Amino acid sequence: MEAYLSEWLGLMVRWFHVIAGVAWIGASFYFVWLDNHLREPPAWKKQQGIKGDLWAIHGGGIYEVAKYQLGPKEMPRELHWFKWEAYSTWLSGMTLLFIVYYLGSPGYLIDPTKADISLGTGVAIGLGTLALVMAIYEALIRSPLAHNGKAFGLVLFAILLLVDWGLFQVFSGRGAYIHVGAVIGTIMVANVFLGIIPSQRALVNAVHAGKEPDERVARLAALSKLRSTHNNYLTLPVIFIMISNHYPMLYGHPQGWAILAAIGFITAFARHYFNLRHRDINRPSILVAAAAMTVVLIWVIAPTPTTSTSTATAAVSDETVAQILETHCVACHAESPTQPGFQSAPAGIRLENLSLLADHNGKVRQAAVDTHYMPLGNMTGMTEEEREQLGLWLNGQ
Ligand code: HEC
């Protein structure tokens, strides 16, 4: 019953997390789009301090949007801030991190073949990394490096690469991936909480006081712009990482960290195309290059044909394979798993007998032969020889 209820809890939080994320990123895409499509307003609007004008039609109504240079003479009674989308995405994401990785089955986070650490140590490393990287980012964005956008971008990429590589050495592939995603998400929400919102508050205060913004307000605004540029480039990678959790071919790969880095780079680069296009610069070569890099990546990480993925079918008896399933898989992959914490067959895959195994041929090969992603965390100590035997038997099907 406990496992069942915790499944529901995970599902509800995940559902909420996705909705909050859609609202956050959707609003952020919308405002980037808006900013880049503002046109010069007619003279009478300029006189009121409006610097950008835009008309749109949606849901059967026509909208007129105006962006002020600073603000209206008098602040409206109601001003929408768009901050809870970001905060609730992060809070629900952290809750999910706890439910699935810190309080759920240790196999999601820990892989004893990489680092034989306790779950407690894993949690400390995970949370410590989030706090440390956020602190480093905050120190950097307040340093002179912030004056050089390109150099900052490179340093940020290098830091994330190091985090990615480092976490991959101590966590399971999946655990490492989700933590890189959480690091990026934390930087993004800190950008909102520690930079963008305080800067907006300073601007609103200046308008209230009827003052021209002083140097401090202008500096905060410039930094805020850099922070939102970073967030903008991080949106596609962070969403990719969230969904990559369902693809063991990526995080289960021995060089999973390099794959993550490559995809992070490609997706941020693709975002660049849209940013340029919003500024009326159309450079499709960027998308073509991103697509070409993706094709190269797919080719490079394709599983190398070992004896087991080739067509060899040395005789491996049904009994041997049934024994392998019994020892290494069935505790979880059964209608009623005996492994504590599991309520039903994970990923809907039951492996109680050989015909069920044959039904899932491709997936099983990928999870337990081509990669070592299964058994989860290799809790049962499955050997290379057993993987080889499983692969050979699957070839015969
Ligand atoms: C400790 C529990 C556990 C054991 C033991 C285990 N698995 Fe899994 N398996 C899981 C979980 C949990 C998932 C779902 C992972 C996810 O959501 O990515 C899964 C998913 C899978 C998948 C689907 C992967 C995909 O593409 O989504 C396959 C195939 C699989 N396991 C095969 C095996 C085989 C073969 C064995 C035995 C050699 C095994 N598992 C042992 C827990 C286990």
From TrEMBL:
Keyword Cell division tagged: no
Keyword Lipoprotein belongs to the record: no
Domain of life: Bacteria
TM ranges: 12-33, 87-105, 117-140, 152-171, 177-197, 256-274, 286-302
Keywords per UniProt: Membrane, Transmembrane, Transmembrane helix
An annotated Gene Ontology molecular function: heme binding
Residue intervals of the Urate oxidase N-terminal domain: 3-302
Protein name: Uncharacterized membrane protein
